[in-house]
Amino acid sequence: MTAAMGFTGGVLDRAPHLRADEAALAEARRHPQARFLVLDRLKPVLVRGEDRLQWASAAAGGQDLVVFLGLDAAGVPHFAMEGDAEQAGGVAVDARAAGARLPAWEGAAVALARSLIDWHRRHGFCAACGAPTRMARGGFLRRCPACGAEHFPRVDPVVIMLAERDGHALVGRQPGFPPGFFSALAGFVEPGESVEEAVARELREEAGIGVRAVRYVASQPWPFPSSLMIGVLAAAEGFELRPDFEELEELRWVSRLECLAALDGRGDWRAPPPLAIAHWLLRAWVEGLGD
């Protein structure tokens, strides 16, 4: 299931031993076969008219922000950097659209590159003392030369869940969704919560239902800006709903047949596309994972 999910399927070796060696990283950047994933204002650059990345040379981008992605099976170093799509010889594409089109390993590279570069652009100063920080370890660390504090790229955990009961699953829509679009409910894990506690709280707050027997299904990196989607199923204690209409426009219990029709584009509501973990969560439930 997860092999077809957007932004998963990475094959690059992140080589922590190389990230810890600044001289070796500098040498890797000068490698004659080194490949650079260019992000033009956080949009990956693709080959014109093709569904693959336009890997470039170092000359296609600036040198102030270059992050290390890893080594391929042949030992060729891969990096990401900010740059100009035209100079790189390709076309900039929205990262969500690219994630749906690219081969799995390239989509995974985009997820890592976009998350890291966005984080660096927004965390240039030390949270402890306010001094400018410097990038280290190939982009997986910022170090403060003033106070010695170390800052690591953050990942925000998000629970995305289907409550299910007696052959029905709960889907909802937010006011900003496209017409007819429904999805699984989701929310950020708060400090001091387990995944199970976050699932129970979110479903209680948004739908007014109690749940038990939370069951993990799959996870997905979501680089907007840097979340980890944790997909689960949860057994609902009842069908009665008390929706939070500040968060949601509508909630709906759907049968497996209705869900399958929506996933296949034949229903009276629209399901999430295969790029999103919500699609695979719904499909896992349709196939009986919650039984």
**Could you list the spans in which at least 5 consecutive residues all have pLDDT below 50?**
none
Radius of gyration: 21 Å
Name the average pLDDT: 94
CATH topology of the largest domain: Nucleoside Triphosphate Pyrophosphohydrolase
* Number of helices in the DSSP assignment: 8
Which structural category do the helix and sheet elements fall into?
A: alpha+beta
Biggest pleated-sheet summary: 6 strands, mixed
Task: Describe how the helices and strands are arranged.
Elements: H1 16-19, H2 22-29, E1 35-40, E2 43-46, E3 61-71, E4 77-83, H3 85-88, E5 91-92, H4 95-101, H5 104-122, E6 134-136, E7 141-143, E8 150-151, E9 156-165, E10 168-173, E11 185-188, H6 195-207, E12 211-222, E13 227-236, E14 250-255, H7 256-263, H8 277-286
Parallel strand pairs: 1-4, 9-13
Antiparallel strand pairs: 1-2, 2-5, 3-4, 6-7, 7-8, 9-10, 9-11, 10-14, 12-13
